[in-house]
Amino acid sequence: MSTIKDAKFIKEAVDFGTIVPVFKKVIWLDKKINKATLFCSALGYYEAYLNSQRVGKFIFAPGWTTYGKRLQYQEYDVTSMMEECNVLEIAVSNGMRFHGNPHENYESITCKESALIAGLKIEYAEGTEDFIPTDSTWECAKSNILDSSVYNGEAVDFTFNTDESFPVKELPDVNKEILIATEGEEVREMATLSAIKLITTPKGEMVIDFGQNLTGYVEWVVPQRKGAEFTISHAEILDKDGNFYTTNLRSAKAQVKVISDGNERVYKPHFSFMGFRYIKLEGFNRDEINLDNFKAIVVFSNMKRTGYFACGHDLIQQLYENIVWGQRGNFLDVPTDCPQRDERLGWTGDAQVFARTASTTYRTDKFFKKWLHDLACDQRENGAITDVCPDLLRWESHGSSAWADAIVVVTYWVYRTYGDTQVIKDQFEAMKKWILFMEANGSERGLFDKHPHHFGDWLSLDAGDEATGGLTDKNLIGTAYLAYSNSLFIEMGKVIGEDMSYFEELYALTVKKYREKYIDTGKTEHETQTSNVLALYFNLTDKPEREAEKLVKDIEACGHLKTGFVGTPYLLHTLTKIGRTDLAYKLLFRKEFPSWLFPVTKGATTMWERWDGMKKDGTFATPEMNSFNHYAYGSVGDWLYTTVAGIDSDFNEPAYKHIIFRPLPCKELGYAKSRILTENGEVISSWEYTGNGDECKFSFTIPNGSHATLYLDDEEYEFESGTYTTVFEYKGY
Known about the structure:
The chain contains 14 helices and 35 strands. By secondary structure, it is an alpha+beta fold. The chain has four domains: 4-143 and 159-178, Sandwich (Jelly Rolls); 188-301, Galactose-binding domain-like (Jelly Rolls, Sandwich), CATH 2.60.120.260; 307-645, Glycosyltransferase (Alpha/alpha barrel); 647-729, Maltose phosphorylase, domain 3, CATH 2.60.420.10. Strand 19 and strand 20 form a beta hairpin.
C-alpha cells in the first residue's frame, strides 16, 4: 500500500526568488470512488486547495519541528471534494525560517530550501486504488504572493500574472525517514475580533485598535483602486504620546502589502502571523476605511479550554484574562516566548515555569507531548537540553538550569494533570541523560556549578535597572534545580517501575552539598528573594524558619517582589507554605511598580516580558528585549487556581482522581470560583463572603470517579462525588 514516503520532495526547477510557488496536478477520474485521501507535508508551510476549495483547517501546516530530524505530515479526507476533473494546487512558503542564522547546518534545522511532498490516494468502488505522488510530472506556477516571511509579513500583488506554468525538480537527497504522522494540535483560526476604533495619532497616523493584544493576522477588504498599494503595519502598543510604536519588534517588519487589481476582494495573510493590538494603515484614503471591513483573526493551537477562574476584583480578573491571552498568543504549535518580534522561539525556560498554569487552563497533553519529543530529539549527545526547541543553533550554548529542566518539569505536569504514564516512558531516557549531565558538571558530585552557561534569575529586579541575569548566584540556581528536577524524576520513575535508587542517593547528596555551600553563607548572591524561595519551595533547607524570616524581612523592607523568571513562579506558593498567605495577597494586590497589577493599570491585555516593560512615566524599557506578550510571569495563574480558588491534584492519584481542596479566601476579592474540566468531569470550588461579617459560603463539586480531601479552617474532610456547600465564619486574609 502506497504512503507519503513513496512520493518525492519537489520544488520549482527555476528560481522564483522570494515569490511563493504553487505546485499543481490535474487528476481525471473515470470510475466511481469510495474514498480519497490527501497526504501532505513540506519543508516550510503549505496550503492545499482541491478544486479551489481549501483543504483542512490547519494554519501553518505541517507544524514546526526540527525539520532535519522530524517532519510531520497530515492526512485529509477529501472524498466530498472530488469531481470528474480535479485540480490539486499546493502553495509552499519558507515556513519558520529564522533569518540571519549563519550556522552551516541551518538548512536541516529550519528550511533553507523549501520543498513539497504529497500524495493523493484514491480508493475506487470496484476495489482498486490509485496513488498520485508528487514527482517530476507535476507543474508549478508563481503565486501572487511576491514575498512571505513569518517575521516580516507578506507582499501580494493581485495584478501579477500567475498563469505561466514551470517544471519542477525532484530532491532525491532529502531523507524521507524523517516523516512522521501529526503528533501535535493543529494551529487554527480560533476567534475573530472586531475593530473597536479608528485613531488619528499625534503624528497623523491612521491606526485601528482591536482592543486586545493577540496573535494572528487581519482579514480586510482591499479597496477597489487598481494599481494602488496598501500597507498594514502591526504593533502591540502606542507610545506615551499616543503614536504607533514598533521599535520593540527589532528587525521584524510585521507588515502586509497588497496591490489591488480593482476587483472587490477580502484578503488575509497565508503564511505569516503577527503579535499586535494596533494596525497602522498606509495608502488608504480616509473614505476607504470602514471599521467593519477589518477583522483580527486570532490563531493558536486547537486545544480544549479546561480551566476557568473568576473573582470579585476587577484588576485581578483582568490579570487572569491576560494570563489566558498570553497562552493563546504563544501556544502556536510550540510554546513560544513571544509572537511579535524577530524571535518567536520555543524557549524552554518560559515553557517550564508556565507548564502548570498552561495545563490547567487548556488541555495541553497532545501539544506538549509533540514538543517534548522534539526536545528529546534535539538533546545533545552529552545530555544537555537546548535553550530553544526546535533548536536553531543560534549559539553553541545549552544546558542552562531552569531552562533545560523543561524536559523534566513539563513532563511532570503533563503526567500529574492527565495521568498518562506514556509521557514518562517517552521522556524517561532524555530526563535521565539531563540529570546525569548536571551531575557531571559540578566541581564535586552533588553540585551543578561548573557549567559555563546559565541565564540565572532572568529579568529579576535585584541586580539593577534593566539588568538581565539577576543577582542570585547562578550556580546556586543550578544546584537547586539539580535537586528539584531529580526529585520529580525519582517520583516519575517509580510510577513506571524503574529502580531509582541511584538518583535517590544523588538527591540526598545534592541537598547536603547545597546546604553546605549556599545556605546561611552571608553572601549577597546567596541571600536574595529567589534564593530563599528556592530553598523553601524545593525543600533544600534544614531550618526553613531561617529562610522564611529572611524572605519575609526582604519583602517587607522594600514592599515588593524582586524575583525574575526563576523565583517568581514559586514566590506566592512559598509564602503560603510558610504561613504568610497574607503577604502573598499583599503582593498580588499591589498596583505600583513592580507588581503583577502594574501592567494591568497601564492597560495591558496580555502578560509583559518585563516588570517595567512600560515605566511609570509612560516610556519603555530597552527595545532590545521588551515584549508585551510574554507568558512567563503568568505562572502566577496556578496560585489563583490552587490557593485562591483552592483546587489541586494529588500526584499519587493524578488527573484529579484525588482532588485536594484548600481554598484560602480573602475579603478584598469578595468571591472566587474555579472550574476545571477533567477526564471524570467538572471540578468546581467556590467561596463568597455573604456581606454578613465574616460569614463565607463555600461550595465544592467532585465528579463521578473522583474523591476529594478538603482542608478548611484547620480541619480535614473526606468527600466522594457530589456537590457540597457549607457556610461559616471565616476571617480570611
